[in-house]
Prior knowledge:
Blueprint: H1 2-20, E1 24-30, H2 38-50, E2 59-65, H3 73-82, E3 87-91, H4 93-101, E4 107-111, E5 131-133, H5 142-152, E6 158-163, H6 170-183, E7 187-192, H7 196-209, E8 213-216, H8 220-224, H9 226-236, E9 240-242, H10 245-249, E10 254-257, H11 260-275, E11 292-296, H12 297-303, H13 309-314, E12 317-319
Parallel strand pairs: 1-2, 1-3, 3-4, 4-5, 6-7, 6-8, 8-9, 9-10, 11-12
Antiparallel strand pairs: 10-11
Helix pairs in contact: 2-11, 3-4, 5-6, 7-9
Amino acid sequence: MMRALISVLLLVASAASAQTATVYRIGMLDTTSESANRANLDAFRKGLREAGYVEGQNLVIDYRSADGRSERYAQLAADLVRAKVNVIVTRGFEAARAARDAGTVPVVMATGADPVAAGVVKSLAHPGGNVTGLTTLGNELPSKRIELLRELAPHAKRVAALLNLANPTAPSERRQIEVAAKSFGMDAIVYDVRNAEGVQRSLEAAAQRGVDALLINGEGVLMANREIILDFARKHRLPVMYAAREYVEGGGLIAYGVSYPHLYYRAASYVDRILKGAKPGDLPIEKPTKMYLVINVRAATALDIPIPSKLLLRADELIR
């Protein structure tokens, strides 16, 4: 009798606990659709699960995509604030800035090239305000990408780089590209890309100029329209250096940069700390500790581009 009573009391207590358990709502403000962003989202969810957050139990993820249209970020951020999210996770400085300006909801940058130069935070060590997260150090990579592109295509004389010149970090990136290209005897042609139409227009202009290679950074509008870029590279049989693994997975040739899934995974730890009471402005922004070189051997074969053996040996991953 006593055991039965105890069992009933435990069931009642468990039910009451379940009814009062806190359910956290995480807003995500990204540049691409959920399906296109699957690898990063899987890594983010893995990090959350390891911290004890499970969708359908104590977690809801409210995902919003700007679909490469930066002008949509402000409205989407406002929508997330009205939805009473506990934290907003963003990709890119424009999304982070929109989320910051939408109110006082804590913001975690899953990625951001240079949030200080973009005016999103005060410093990496002491962000201040309601924004923290991770940086891709995007402005420190263009020179290395040009160097690797030169190894891959030693006869290339003219390289086209697609940049969003509205990005505060773009002037520095442009200078690095132009200086690095010149040091290797190449001319760099920079195209300003701010939307899908700009991507198509710039690629057509590059084809007319007879470029020998392309350089594609991690800009959100480029990621959102990567199929257009990949199709162009295949059609014109051009060597292209990308900033993200997603391009190489989609058939692109080579990518050098940070591991975006790892950044999203690490973003989950920031979300966890904030939900447990930490102030975002007190959490230092994290820098990546390793860069990844990924080469698609199948793409190289299709394009009839021989990969130097030393480049193959340096690769962190080969897609065959």
